Amino acid sequence: MLTEKQKERYSRQIISEFIGEEGQKKLSNVKALQIGAGGLGSPCALYLVAAGIEELTIIDDDIVSLSNLQRQILYNEDDIGINKVEIVEKRLSKLNSNVKIFTHKEYVDNESIKKFIKDKDFIVDCSDNMKTKFLVNRVAVENNIKAVIAGIKDLYGQLITINPHKSACYQCVFNEPESEIKTQKPLPVIGVTPGILGVLEALEVIKTTLGLPNLENHLLMVNLLNMSFNKIKILKDENCICSK
Ligand SMILES: [Zn+2]
Fold first, then answer.
1. Interval between CA 210 and ligand 1 midpoint (Å)
2. What is the predicted pLDDT for the residue at 192?
3. What number is the average pLDDT over the span 32-37?
């Protein structure tokens, strides 16, 4: 049952034919694990919490720096030098106190991620490196948790949603690099690009929960230079981890 306050808060999505009260109840049962609270993670977390999921757990091990502010919209100048997860917890709790927010300052690897996956409906990858994206994909497939993975560079982005063992996974499409290519130079990013892709990640969690069309078995290629969104059909690889 939704409370009167919840009915008021979510009134504009409850009157949507795509959500309604039933859909809102479904959203209020979603537990998501988000990896990263940066350029993709800021808008993704804001929209998931605003939409009224049950619980959002965020892992990030970084502190806020001046060069983050051009795209990481959860933070402001007062936050420079402070752990991102500290700020995230305060901001998101103020936005929607109905949502349980858990944050952990931790580097995500094979071992650490296992502590946070219990009972999760989704893992949302908002990291900035391929190694973590492959890790998220593997953990999601092995533990039967749905996943949304996005990547961005400059004015370009990619997005995929994974339904373990049922749809193609990240590894069906991309080859895992043997080791992360360490470049001294940061990648170019127009702030709006992770803004858009992070919002689309939140949308995929919402639409997947509601049983609406999503990006399972598709890779969305976003080109913001010429404003094209191409949905490419992808196939499950019979030799991939998701086919075992
Ligand atoms: Zn696969």
1. 24
2. 98
3. 98
Q: What is the pLDDT of residues 178-194, one digit of tens each?
A: 776 666 688 999 999 99
Residue 178 has what pLDDT?
77
Distance 41 CA to ligand 1 centre (A): 24
User: Is the predicted pLDDT of residue 150 greater than 70, yes or no?
Assistant: yes
CA 126 to chain centre: 5
* Overall average pLDDT of the 41-55 stretch: 98
Query: Quick one: average pLDDT of 114-140?
Result: 97
- For residue 145, the CA-to-ligand 1 centroid distance in Å is 14
Cα–Cα dist 110/105, whole Å = 16
Distance CA 34, CA 172 (A): 22
Quote the ligand 1 centre to 65 CA distance (angstroms): 36
**158 CA from centroid of ligand 1 (Å):** 17
CATH fold of 29-243: Rossmann fold (3.40.50)
User: Letter for the amino acid at 123?
Assistant: I
Domain positions in the chain? 29-243
Degrees, nearest 5: CA angle 203-31-210? 45
- Please give the distance, rounded to the nearest whole angstrom, from the Cα atom of residue 34 to the centre of ligand 1: 21
